[in-house]
Amino acid sequence: MENKPYFCPNCRSNRVKFSQITKYSQSFIKDAITGEIVESGEAVPIAQSEPEIECLVCRVSGNEMRFIKQAEREPRTTTPTTPTYV
Ligand SMILES: [Zn+2]
Fold this sequence. Notes:
This protein is about 10% helix and about 30% strand. It has a domain of about 55 residues. The longest helix has 10 residues. By secondary structure, it is mainly β. The strands form two sheets. It has a three-stranded antiparallel beta sheet with strand order 1-4-5. The radius of gyration is 21 Å and the shape is rod-shaped. The model has no long low-confidence stretch (mean pLDDT about 90). The protein binds zinc ion. Zinc ion (ZN) binds next to loops. Zinc ion binds next to loops.
């Protein structure tokens, strides 16, 4: 995962709460007649070229790049706290 700010392109309110979705591959052997699983192998994580990110506010998920690009389009601005009146 990249060390860059994220911003959810869907709800546009979340920059902090995300989860990474990892896909696993698990082999199994089925009984051809009953359909029962008779043997299952170990779950192996599938390496993905780009991590899939889920927004924990609106539950939308997508490629990490979508979240990074949205943060670049709408960067978080730090509001100045100095009063302007004289
Ligand atoms: Zn969202």
